[in-house]
Amino acid sequence: MATPIIDIKGLHKQYGTYKAVDNLDLQVQQGEIFGLLGPNGAGKSTTILMMMGLSEASAGHISIAGIDPQRNPIDVKKVIGYLPDNIGFYEQRSGLENLELIGRLNGLSTKETRQRAHLLFEKVGLQNVMNKKVGAYSRGMKQRLGLAETLIKKPKILILDEPTLGLDPNGVKEFLQLIQELNRQDQLTVLLASHHLHQVEEVCNRVGLFVKGKLVAQGTIQQLADQLFAQMNPTVTIETNLTDVPQLENILRSQENVIAVDFNDNRFIIQHTYPNTLPIVEIFVKAHVPIHSLFERTYGLDDIYSFYFKDSNI
Amino acid sequence: MKLKQFFNINTDSMKSMGVLIDKEVSDYIRSKKFIVLLLIVLCTSVASLYSALTTLRHNPPSPDSAQASFFFLQVFTHSDGTLPPFHVFISFLGPLLGICLGFDAINAEYTNRSLTRILAQPIARDGLLNAKFIGALIILVFIFASLICMTVGLAVFWTGLTPSFHECLRLGLFLFVTVAYVGFWLNLALLFSVLWKHPATSALVSIAVWLFFMVFYPMIIGVIAKGMAPGMYASNQEIQSFQNFILSIMRLAPNQLYEDGTLVLLMPKVRSLSPLSMEQMQGAIPTALPVWESVKVVWTQVTALIASTVICFACSYFVFMRREIRA
User: Fold this and answer.
1) Are residues A69 and A27 part of one domain?
2) Residues on chain A touching B120 (C-beta within 8 angstroms)
3) Do A151 and A267 fall into the same domain?
4) Domain for residue A93, yes or no?
5) One digit per residue, pLDDT tens: chain A, 314 residues?
């Protein structure tokens, strides 16, 4: 395997006694879209700031494309395009001026900046509003302008912190498509921090689950599901139209192959070790309890997420 | 190789500093609050300079009189009684200009959330602070230099006299002290803008400090002086030490330092800022001091002004470099 473009080992960040990031190990390969997934306050943004050299690590080692951001923050910032969450622009200036400022701060000449800016405005679909003041931009437009700003320096790595926050569903879709396109075309490595499971699921090759400063699991979504639910029992949810069936509940509980029964309103949630649902249905039929609906539960990212999230509260 | 690398980094950071300064200056010029304040300062200064010029114009000194050699300096200190002279106006309004330039320098970037975005670019963190400071300083130098130059130009036009090298030198020093004085207030406001997250807080605190020094500080000194005044039959020494004490606490106020400094620089005949005894005056020839001698007289004042400016800047630098960037 090639050396990872992002290589984090044993990273710690402490604010007083509060551990924001706790012994983090993370490797991302070139050309990957990696999703950092976690609830608010899990330490995603802190990790990103440390990767940018904007925040000091308490301990640990980071290497971004072979550069240590804690020692050479300026060099690292040349290869990383960072889109912070809730990005702010100079609202009194036009989109073009904002973009040109960033281009020139990256050491581009005025002419080069202008050329790239025009290309990028076309790429992100803002060519019609580039001379308007940013104050008049919508949330989605600002987000696109932010993306254009990260791209003007031709980065190797793109770090996006909650990029879809506050966008409408259509805007989210377009934005994610744009990111995928960039990843395919330029072999751009993308690190996407988010708490939106489904968006991450859609675009990311691999995800890392972040809880309370720790990376509790990482891998493809399939891998995570396998890891997590290999030892989990199948679960079936059965709805009836009766609300008071203590007898049936007792019968179910007394079965050897039934592990757990949860009954509320008119819905049974049954964990079992049967190869299929037939024996359970038989019990219902014997007890003369009509079945309204039955479905077997499958595991998605939601479950993975809530599993770890629940775990973290213990 | 290493040397070359070193210089490369340097030119890079100089370039991005240039871009940032460029942005700051254009931001200032476009911002409405600055334009409004600038108009107020310009109106009052122009009014005061104009009134001084018109009175002086009607009785210009004859070219060979002793007075004529400092005609151009008089324009800045002369007052016909209706409007205070230029340097008093500046000591009063200059701080407001400095505060206006500095009070939201950093915290506006925080609240606007553009700070992370700028710092995510390959620039050093102190570059931003330096650019804010240098940008504002450039604006100040331009304002005051053009004011002084225009006044001198108008005086030349109206009277036909030309400024001597000596006068130009003194006016240059006057410009320097003025910029240092307004620069102090700029840096104080800059420090407050780093310390507090809301521009309103830093603006109010800066203005409170300004009001304190302008209005309340002289009152407090008045009270102290009244309480400490030596009796009617006090010895000469007692009176002198009392005066010295009052003078030194008065000089804790930056506007006092500025007024002292400009007075000596613009009035070459002033030879001391503390009371002189008759013995000291004896045998002195009533003539103007050379520039360098005047500079020596105000050396402490000007040093104190610059030192307080530097201290404020160092504090903001220290706080800003240690600050977490997270908004």
Assistant:
1) yes
2) 52, 54, 77, 80, 82, 84
3) no
4) yes
5) 578 899 999 999 888 888 888 888 888 999 899 998 888 778 888 899 899 888 888 899 999 988 998 888 888 998 999 998 888 899 889 999 999 999 999 988 889 999 999 999 998 888 899 899 999 998 888 988 999 999 998 899 999 988 888 788 888 888 888 889 888 988 899 999 988 877 888 888 888 888 888 888 888 877 877 776 666 677 888 888 877 777 888 888 888 888 888 887 778 888 888 888 888 888 888 888 888 888 877 666 677 767 776 654 43
- Select the residue from A40, A86, A104 to test the B interface by mutation, using most B Cβ atoms within 10 A: A104
Same domain, A108 and A250: no
Domain residues for the domain of A127 are 6-228
Nearest by CB to residue A106, choosing from B113, B114, B121, is B121
Residue B65 vs residues A175, B35, B61, B285: alpha-carbon distances, Å: 79, 42, 7, 17
Q: Do A143 and A278 fall within a single domain?
A: no
Number of domains within chain A: 2
Token pair for residue B23? 């942005």
Q: Which residue has the tokens 């993306």?
A: A147
The predicted complex's ipTM stands at: 0.80
Is A218 inside any structural domain? yes
Which chain B positions have a beta carbon within 8 Å of A45's beta carbon?
326
Residues A157, A252 within the same domain: no
CATH number for position A144 = 3.40.50.300
- Return the DSSP state at A276: S
Q: Which two tokens stand for residue A115?
A: 């050329």
Whether B120 and A82 lie within 8 Å, measured CB to CB: yes
Which single residue is written with the structure tokens 């025009």?
A118
CA distance A178 to A123: 9
